[in-house]
Records
---
Amino acid sequence: MTNILIVCESTNQRTSTSHILQSGGYDVVEAANTSEGLTCAEQDHPELIVLDARSSDVDSDAFIHTLRATQPTSAVPILMLHEDCAQPMHGTRTNGTSLNGAPDALLCTPIQEQDLLVCVQTMLRMRETQTTLYHQNQRLKAQLELLTIANRSLDLRVLSEQLLDCVLWMVGLSYGGIWLYDRDQIVCLAQRGLNAEQTGGSARRRVQVDSPFAHALQSGKAIYYDMVAAVGESSIPEKPHPLAIIPLMIESEGIGVLQLSTIDGSGPAPEDYHLLDTVLIHIARAINRAHQYEWSERQRYRLELADRKKDEYISIISHELKNPMASIKGYADLVLRRIRKNPDDPNRKGLEIISQQVKRMTGLLEQLIDFSRINMNRLKLNLEQCDIGDITKRVVEDLHATTTQHQLTLTIRDTPLIAPLDEPRITQAISNIIGNAIKYSPADGSITIHIKQHQTDPREALLSISDQGVGIPEAEQDKLFQRFFRASNVEEDVTGTGLGLFITREIVSRHGGRIWFESHEGQGTTFFITLPLVSVIEQPDL
């Protein structure tokens, strides 16, 4: 039954007003003065206050101001009974929000019984409507906040704590927790007001078959228990407390549990649980997304760690193998020089093969070492101002001596083309491209190298290498610079590691340059390399 507080100094008027309200079915609390009225308002929690100000001694402004300034009574509607409505009441509410010293409604003498009851009924209905709207607004606000939180973070622990705080705010509770279910084990991600014995701390523990968590996860339905039944005798409070265990489901799979508990034995209103039901899927998805992200990050870290160890191992082994290879080649070359005067020496051919194969193996080891350095970010450059044309010319001369079946043509324009370069590394990159052109071109094939200042961007030098080789299948062209990749149309007797272009691109990129190609299968390939110049060359006037 609705509780109404009457504050009136006149016993007769207070009794008369009380009788009218009681006849209307209301419970009435009476206060003989404003001081007593403030005490009753705080203790009895009335839903409406009737202030009889027909006595000139009543300080209505101070009384109302005090009520408005006190949190428990600030929203209680106030009906003032006044002697003369013709006398203006400063601050009287007219727009639905009362000023600090003004009542919510005003009735003046003569006060009719029906008028009083209608006014009280209207004010109570307005209060109920306002309260409903306020709670709906708060629920929607909480729902929006929760949806915002659900998409804010991928840190599983931080996200879970923020979601739990928002859920507890939504349902008006202070105790609860969120657990993650993963491979028959459960771990507490966040908790409020629960001790380590209740939550299991941060350790993973196996879910007992007959536990409330297991039942909730298996059935996909919320379970309501006393805290004693749910978390054990060790955490019994002074009296049993209700507890809600709500599974977090994605489709038909349980990924966790939300636990809600209260300390005073009361639970959320049905509409609060209904609102919670509408956001459970968002909570589950957010936690699952963060969990998957955390798992993928752990896997990525493990793979990167394994990759680093592999690269370090390759680097160590390659260095260890280089030393005996150098000794073998040095000894073979020494013997070759000694028997050079005797072309009929039966050991000559074998020694030449040994020298060539050791040189090839050394090149492969160098590629593996560079590959490891790139992956470990240890490929260092020592930049000096160099002429790109001179470097390319020396590379062409060296490679020309290795083949008698291919024609290499070098054209250099706009000399000099000075750039900040690590000369050994750029030499390696250009050698890789021209060497591939020789390797994949047919006998008597022509390889053309052009170097000039870039017409589109004169701050760059442009190097192009064209061959008449097998070309690159269109479906495989986007993979060409990947490590260990070799095109499917390469003949089996053409050896290679699939690292040359990967290393070349890295070298060019670290110089601030670019590398790309144009190719049609069976029609050859043209590679392009740009490198930034130190200064722009002035073109002569035509």
Note: The two ends are 105 Å apart (CA to CA).
---
Amino acid sequence: MIRTALIVSTLLLLPGFTAQDQSSRSGSLETELVIEKSFNVKAGEKLAIETADAEISVQTSSGISEATVEVYLSGRDMERARRYFESMNFDVRQSSVGISVTSENPPRRLRDWYERGQARIRVQILIPEVFNIDIKTSDGDVALDDVTGITSVRSSDGDLRLSSISGSMILLQSSDGDIIGEKLTGKEIRVNTSDGDILLDSATGESVDIRTSDGNIVVENISGRSEASTSDGDILIGDASGLSIALRSSDGDIAVKRLMSENADISTSDGEVYVEHSESNLNATTGDGDIVVAVIEAREFTARAGDGNITIRVPTGVGADLNLRGERVNIASSHDFNGTLAKRTASGSINGGGPVFRITSSEGTVLISN
């Protein structure tokens, strides 16, 4: 069964980190503002961040010419937290190309203490909306506001939460975390996580590549020469358009609401394939699961199932040539069929003929319905 428990409303951007007063208490953690700097900048400059252990929030605003950087330190034992922070040698500076924020890895003995939740570092930045972004963090979440520019965000262990990103190149990567975004628009878009879900409102580009090794992929709108793949999870797509799309899962279901790409290739080794509306040249394959496709406009169509049923819904009056094989083959009487129909095979045409439907199930039923 298609697991519809993944709610597309999760695509809405989660709020970023909230700025706090210079000194406050949150539960048992005391918080201090330890670095505060401002710089005059120009649109199109670059923000470069490379930190070891920090949560990062980047907010943007149009029409401003100043960048601000604030670093907050929270801890249960503030004296020890300050020693931890000082060991990282945080550096915030301006160069000819923009703003840089860097830190070093703390000693192992202090890092163990930090990872037990004894301290927290947050970097909060405000920059112009038109800015190039290069963020690397070893351990921490990243929140990024609307931005236009070349964007690269990488976290070894943390979630990425993004608003609308536009630029010639967009790279979003987490080794162990979820990636949640609103609108991605660029020439080349790469979204990758090794262990986490990817949830996007839209991804539009000449080339779009979305991958997770262990997680689900949910994209409301995807357009371009696109590919989405997961080794262990479901893929749910709202509207798919553009030159081509390839959707692949090793162990999960694949569902598409509106498939309008010129060419589409959908495959899962162990799961179901469901397309609610197809206007594409389509190749659909599953090793162990059902395939259900509603054809709105007849195009070349190949479907193969190893151990599952295949149901193709064709509107009355839409023509196609048929080459069907299965444990049992049926064609709805509402279609004008001309050809040879046997228990396990069918060859001929419906509604005057048209593009070829090659449908095969090794151990399941093949049905042409309406």
Note: The CA atoms of residues 231 and 250 lie 5 Å apart.
